[in-house]
Design brief:
CATH architecture of the largest domain: Alpha-Beta Complex
Largest sheet: 10 strands, mixed
CATH topology of the largest domain: Spore Coat Polysaccharide Biosynthesis Protein SpsA, Chain A
Number of helices: 24
Structural class: alpha/beta
Helix content: 40-55%
CATH class of the largest domain: Alpha Beta
Shape: globular
Distance between the termini: 41 Å
Number of domains: 3
């Protein structure tokens, strides 16, 4: 008990005791595990003769587990071409006979028992794939398990090893990576806690990951000499491989969206002098001798786990917005996702809190795969309680939108007075609301705009730095508040480039959801005026609308002639087939993501003055500007008839995004504000 309190603290210890005392079934039905008692029937694993991935499974008996493992791979195969290599380590049962009847995989039969280390090395030597995934035979994989491991290497070029989230059949977490202490003892992160806790569902570097599901490039594995034979037959061979990779300048990653169920025998815990478990203590001593110098840099035994975790990053940056970001929903989410990625790349522990306290499991998984910890109920009651418990590690807080910043500005100052307070306007709400009120003549909206102005200016005055997305807004605030520190952090876009030229293109594409008032107004304008004017010039021209629209409005717009697509997960095919993007916004503020997105694909934009405001775009050079229905129709006809104009707009649009809306420009702004 005393050791647990030292490592976990009182809260963690009580949680662990509660987990142990809780009644639970042997198997969590939500995991959809395959039964072990199923009679053997024909089985084929859909492998490739030219694999990119080699799955190596060492086996010694337990044929029922091996069959369940193979069936799970057949049900959730890697997306990349793959092979399965089963290394039969002189099994004492009928494993060899049954494996001979399974098609689609390669079987290596050891003449004598080589143990886990020898069998894994034998399988790796025979592998054809670029990547190796070592997998215990007492595991069952879940959809996407291998793809997530390989994505880790794509996201992190210096990643050397990637390991899965290991889960017990009863649903509890077995391992979220592991820490190693200076005496060579190790601690499985999150053991016996809930696998659904977002605090254990974000990707991170760790000291090692279990060989029960471990991915590594074949080249790196070979260069490190494979699993060290001195740790045969098993235990500490995976820890040793991780330390070797780290010594070679590579990192070891825990990958939470790769979930693998592992039937490790819980009853054997503590039986260190019997069976295979006796090698654990023996190999700990060998490991300590081999890595004596490296272990001097590891935390002392008994160091609280929170301290161990905190030492692995520069500090914590808290980001709060109204809801979870969804990059397929709006440009603000796309910008926010870009900011989170840049913060992670700069070494910060990033914590994201949706102000409403809720998140779908998919959203937690997606942010967690990037490396972002998500604060949601019931795991965290809210931002105030998190600040009270974690303020010592808080380096900066980025509060998005005035409605959010107004709630938490004083809390951040009270709990973490030395932390940088950053107000991200997203766009200046009072500017957008004021323009909408002016256009509609709505007095209530005008009053709301004045209230937003007072609140936003007050927050700008209190913040260490305020982010705006356009030069227009920055210049305006510099005039209104000369002493404020205002920085330009605009939209962040990858450069996709154009995949198709001018030939064969036609029609217009509008991107945006109806829930944003400027978009709703634009849709009505297109249906009522712009499309009729366009068809007077080009009778068969169409306007495609990609974005969420309520059913009633969707039907009305369809009846008016707009082609309603709903939300489109992948816009690239549209971007490479239409003639231009249309952005007929009559009010709004900030930089328009729909314009940036189109330009990042090299798609020319026909937009209003409001739509292209503050983006360093010139009419006839990067965009075509139109402010009435007839002008939109004329611009379309002009563009459709002039390939040289289309190519000029496309080239200049791509260059504009490279120059002003790149990750490098955003990173410079973030570093200046936070560091």
């Amino acid at each position: 008990m005393r050791a647990s309190i030292a490592l976990r603290g009182w809260k963690g210890t009580i949680g662990r005791i509660s987990q142990d005392l809780a009644r639970r079934p042997d198997v969590d039905d939500s995991l959809s595990l395959l039964p072990l008692e199923a009679a053997f029937t024909s089985l084929s694993v859909p492998t490739s003769a030219t694999p990119r991935v080699s799955v190596v499974i060492p086996v010694h008996g337990k044929i029922e587990y091996t069959l369940a493992c193979l069936r799970s791979i057949a049900n959730a195969p890697p997306t990349d071409p793959f092979e399965v290599i089963v290394v039969d380590d002189a099994s004492p049962d009928n494993t060899a006979t049954i494996l001979a009847g399974i098609s689609g995989m390669r079987v290596i039969n050891n003449e004598r028992n080589l143990g886990f280390v020898g069998s894994c090395n034998a399988g790796a030597a025979a592998a054809l794939g670029e990547y190796l995934i070592f997998l215990n035979n007492d595991t069952q994989v879940t959809p996407g398990w291998s793809d997530a491991l390989l994505r880790c290497f794509e996201r992190h070029p210096r990643a050397g090893i990637a390991g899965s989230q290991l889960v017990y059949p009863d649903g509890r977490l077995q391992e979220a990576g592991a820490w190693v202490f200076a005496d060579a003892s190790a601690w499985n992160i999150g053991r016996f806690t809930s696998r659904k806790n977002p605090a254990l569902r974000y990707a991170r570097t760790v000291d090692y990951v279990s060989g029960a599901s471990l991915a590594i490039s074949r080249d790196l594995f070979d260069s490190l000499g494979g699993f060290d034979a001195r740790f045969a037959p098993g235990y500490y061979e995976d820890t040793d491989l991780a330390f070797a990779a780290r010594a070679a300048g590579r990192s070891v990653w825990y990958v939470p969206d790769s979930m693998v169920v592992h039937s490790e025998g819980i009853s054997s815990v503590g039986l260190g002098d019997t069976g295979m478990k006796r090698y654990q203590a023996v190999n700990q001593t060998k490991f300590a001798e081999k890595w004596r110098e490296a272990l001097r840099k590891q935390p002392a035994p008994g160091t609280p786990l929170a301290v161990v975790d905190r030492a692995r990053h520069r500090g914590t940056v808290l980001v709060v917005d109204t809801v979870m970001p969804d990059v397929s929903r709006d440009s603000g989410s796309l910008r926010l996702a870009g900011i989170l990625k840049l913060l992670l790349a700069d070494g910060w522990h990033v914590v994201f809190a949706p102000d409403d306290g809720h998140a779908e499991d998919t959203a937690i998984r997606e942010l967690g795969a990037l490396g972002v910890e998500v604060l949601v109920k019931p795991w965290v009651s809210g931002v105030p309680s998190w600040l009270a418990a974690n303020h010592r590690d808080l380096h900066a807080a980025i509060l998005c939108r005035h409605t959010v910043a107004a709630q938490y500005e004083s809390l951040v100052r009270r709990h973490a007075p030395s932390a940088k307070l950053i107000f991200d306007t997203v766009d200046l709400h009072f500017l957008r609301e004021g323009r909408a009120a002016e256009r509609s003549g709505n007095r209530a909206l005008a009053r709301q705009a004045r209230a937003s102005r007072r609140q936003e200016l007050r927050l700008i005055e209190k913040a260490d730095t305020t982010f705006v997305v356009s030069e227009y807004e920055r210049d305006m605030l510099c005039r209104l508040m000369p002493g404020a520190r205002v920085a330009l952090l605009s939209n962040i876009h990858d450069i996709y480039g154009r995949e198709a030229g001018f030939e064969g293109r036609r029609d217009l594409l509008f991107i945006g959801g109806y829930g944003h008032p400027p978009n709703a107004d634009a849709m009505h304008w297109m249906a009522d005026d712009i499309l009729p004017a366009l068809r007077q010039v080009v009778p068969d021209a169409r306007i495609w609308v990609a974005g969420d629209v309520p059913d009633a409005e969707r039907r009305a717009f369809s009846d008016a002639g707009l082609d309603m697509l709903g939300r489109v997960p992948d816009l690239a095919p549209l971007m490479n087939s239409v003639l231009a993007s249309i952005a007929p916004l009559r009010f709004g503020a900030g930089v328009k993501g729909k314009v940036n997105m189109a330009m990042s694909h090299g798609l020319p934009v026909i937009g209003s003055t409001v739509a292209v405001e503050g983006m360093r775009l010139a009419d006839g050079q990067e965009v075509l500007v139109a402010n009435d229905a007839k002008s939109f129709a004329t611009a379309y006809a002009r563009l459709a008839a002039d390939e040289a104009l289309w190519n000029r707009l496309s080239d200049h649009a791509l260059q504009n995004v490279r120059t002003h809306f790149s990750a490098d420009a955003a990173m410079a702004t973030l570093r200046k504000a936070i560091d």
